[in-house]
């Protein structure tokens, strides 16, 4: 996969994450406490997985021993950590050579099983993993009053490149 393609996917991820965070902020915590708690738990899991895989990419110690925590951080903290992750991923990816993108990284999953992925596969996993959990959060947003933003790749790419709508 060319670096431009994975970079565009990472930009999409950041855009979709921001839309989801903004929608979660609109949940009335008094009226929909379960839905808000679920959305925060899903964000917490997303952030922790990203932080673990970022450490694997960087060759640094993994910051977590599990993909969830007993205490779920505030939306503000999760927003900051997700922004930190997105702000790290794009420059990191941009700086990789094609050979580095294809380099295999061996690691141990948090459940103890071994695994290996190329750097590109790890980056794609983070894009895909976020999409999966934003979908779950979307259900909570629906239950909390229909706050789900349109966050598909087609909406992103046509917002980012409006001329594409005119090229047909």
From TrEMBL:
GO molecular function list: metal ion binding
SUPFAM superfamilies: DinB/YfiT-like putative metalloenzymes
Phosphoprotein is among the record's keywords: no
InterPro entries listed in its UniProt record: DinB, DinB/YfiT-like
TM spans (from-to): none
Pfam families: DinB
Binding annotation for a divalent metal cation: 45, 129, 133
Keywords for this protein: Metal-binding
Keyword Nucleotide-binding: no
PANTHER family: PROTEIN DINB, SLR1116 PROTEIN
Family the entry assigns: Belongs to the DinB family.
Protein name: Damage-inducible protein DinB
Protein's organism: Aquitalea palustris
């Amino acid at each position: 996969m060319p670096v431009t393609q994975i970079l565009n996917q990472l930009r999409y991820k950041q855009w979709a994450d921001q839309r989801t965070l903004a929608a979660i902020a609109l949940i009335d915590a008094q009226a929909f406490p379960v839905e808000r708690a679920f959305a925060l738990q899903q964000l917490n899991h997303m952030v922790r997985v990203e932080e673990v895989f970022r450490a694997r990419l960087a060759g640094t110690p993994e910051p977590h021993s599990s993909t969830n925590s007993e205490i779920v951080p505030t939306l503000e903290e999760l927003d900051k950590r997700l922004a930190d992750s997105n702000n790290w991923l794009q420059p990191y990816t941009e700086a990789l050579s094609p050979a580095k993108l294809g380099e295999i990284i061996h690691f141990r999953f948090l459940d103890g099983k071994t695994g290996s992925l190329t750097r590109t596969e790890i980056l794609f996993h983070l894009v895909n993993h976020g999409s999966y959990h934003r979908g779950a959060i979307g259900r909570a947003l629906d239950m909390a009053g229909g706050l789900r933003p349109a966050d598909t790749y087609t909406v992103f790419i046509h917002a980012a490149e409006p001329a594409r709508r005119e090229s047909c």
